[in-house]
């Protein structure tokens, strides 16, 4: 991602929005926000990640269309390297020692899950629901007081899109807050006594691991398809019609 740029644009008219949509399709930019090209309209803050070999063409387009822009990041690789070099105390010896304010690798998250399963057996039960395409275990935490055999349950999964590290971080934070406040917060105690929470901190384990080891912006799974050359699918889009 050396010399890749992140550019922010806000179309002031619907005509500018139409031009911007056209540019996004033609140059195949990586749209960071909004969620899709179709959502770009007048006044919509639009952030795009542009490879270094495409930034000149995009800037030329914008200047010719008289669309105002701002370069948020001049060199994306430098920002990534700066982020990965931040000091992170990642002790897993206790719940309070685990650093919930940094992102953690898949191995660290799964070690954290094993640790909670051993140290908080009254509220936590860890189990596997199978294996991923690349053979990694799919772990789930069952959070709640074992007060009776059957209780209503809430399913929570994070990390469907591999590069969105904030998802797994949220799931870990939620579990931490539930465990730390169970005795002191009547609402939390009542919730965990009456409900089970099934929490999957990393849904897309293969993609998440790949985003740490190979490509920070990898989004999809890592499965192969004999009919297509591209690797993986978008796990948050790849549902059958009328799947629910």
UniProtKB/TrEMBL annotation:
Provide GO CC annotations from the record: extracellular space
The reply to whether Cell inner membrane figures as a keyword in the UniProt entry is no
Subcellular localization: Secreted
What GO molecular function annotation could you give as one example from this UniProt entry? metallocarboxypeptidase activity
InterPro entries the UniProt entry points to: M14A-like_propep, M14A_act_pep, Peptidase_M14
Cofactor(s) this protein requires: Zn(2+)
Query: Has the keyword Transport been applied to this entry?
Result: no
The Peptidase M14 domain is annotated at: 102-244
Query: Which superkingdom is the protein from?
Result: Eukaryota
The UniProt family comment states: Belongs to the peptidase M14 family.
Check the record and name the PANTHER family matching this protein. Answer: CARBOXYPEPTIDASE A6 (PTHR11705:SF18), PROTEASE FAMILY M14 CARBOXYPEPTIDASE A,B (PTHR11705)
Per its record, how is this protein called by name? Carboxypeptidase A6
């Amino acid at each position: 991602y050396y010399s890749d740029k992140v550019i922010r644009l806000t179309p002031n008219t619907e005509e500018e929005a139409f031009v911007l949509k056209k540019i996004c399709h033609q140059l195949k930019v990586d749209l960071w926000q909004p969620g899709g090209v179709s959502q770009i309209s007048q006044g919509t803050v639009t952030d795009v990640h542009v490879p270094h070999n495409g930034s000149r063409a995009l800037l030329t387009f914008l200047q010719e269309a008289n669309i105002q822009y701002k370069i948020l990041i001049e060199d994306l690789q430098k920002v990534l390297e700066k982020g990965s070099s931040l000091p992170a105390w990642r002790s897993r010896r206790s719940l309070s020692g685990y650093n919930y304010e940094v992102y953690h690798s898949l191995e660290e998250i799964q070690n954290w899950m094993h640790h909670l399963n051993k140290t908080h057996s009254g509220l936590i039960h860890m189990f596997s629901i199978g294996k991923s395409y690349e053979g990694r275990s799919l772990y789930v935490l069952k959070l709640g007081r074992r007060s009776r055999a059957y209780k209503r349950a809430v399913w929570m999964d994070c990390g469907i899109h591999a590069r969105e590290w904030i998802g797994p971080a949220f799931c870990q934070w939620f579990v931490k807050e539930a465990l730390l406040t169970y005795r002191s917060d009547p609402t939390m105690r009542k919730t965990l006594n009456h409900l089970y929470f099934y929490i999957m901190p990393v849904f897309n384990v293969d993609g998440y691991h790949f985003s740490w080891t190979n490509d920070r912006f990898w989004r999809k799974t890592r499965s192969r398809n004999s009919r297509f050359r591209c690797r993986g699918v978008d796990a948050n889009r790849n549902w059958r019609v009328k799947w629910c």
